[in-house]
Amino acid sequence: MDVLRLLAxxxxxxxxxxxxxxxxxxxxxxPWLQGPLCLRCGEPDPxxxxxxxxxxxxxxxxxxxxxxxxxxAGGGAIVRAWKDAARAPVAGLAADCILATVPRPVADCIVxxxxxxxxxxxxxxxxxxxxxxQLGSAWSLPVRSDILERIRDRxxxxxxxxxxxxxxAGSMVHRRAIGGGVVLVDDVLTTGATARAAAHHxxxxxxxxxxxxxxxxxxxxA
Length: 222
Ligand SMILES: [Zn+2]
Ligand SMILES: [Zn+2]
Known about the structure:
The protein has helices at residues 3-9, 24-28, 74-84, 89-101, 117-123, 127-139, 161-168, 193-204; strands spanning 64-70, 109-112, 148-150, 172-174, 181-189, 209-217. The chain is of the alpha/beta class. It has one domain (31-217): Rossmann fold. The mean pLDDT is 87. One zinc ion (ZN) is lined by residues 38, 40-41, 43, 51-52, 54-55.
């Protein structure tokens, strides 16, 4: 299939316009998370404080968190296209959105949140790993997918924040030692339970600092 044909077959993930994965009109209307932000957790904060009331969801192992978009309207539509249709090119689109909004973290490597094996196989894509690869090449950081491993997989959907925390605790392990600053990458930051568990294991494995970067985030915390 030639390049023109491939382009013509692409459709905007939001409005289905032909010829692009994201048309310029939809791109303009995305719920971008752009300043002023809380300097720690990256939530919109008119005073750009060092920390805010929403920082609590990061726990003690995560230094900072940044996301490109809010998980509403177009942001959620992109995540659904990426996850449910297993459209691998959407990882590139998600990376582009991050690169347009999130400054390159000062870090030594990138670690994707480990996908549950069953889910990754069902969708045919491992979203966080694909996103980590894209960001790794753009930021010239090595991607370390060998540090964290998911050892059991129970869906988080429909659980309260407290139930998610319990569900995810013990769901992953660290397999190797790591040092320096780590960028932890995931598709969506929801309650923060998964990112907290992953960051906890990265610190146990020897990481000095964990900065979370996600494509989207759910703004309100249960
Ligand atoms: Zn569109
Ligand atoms: Zn905050």
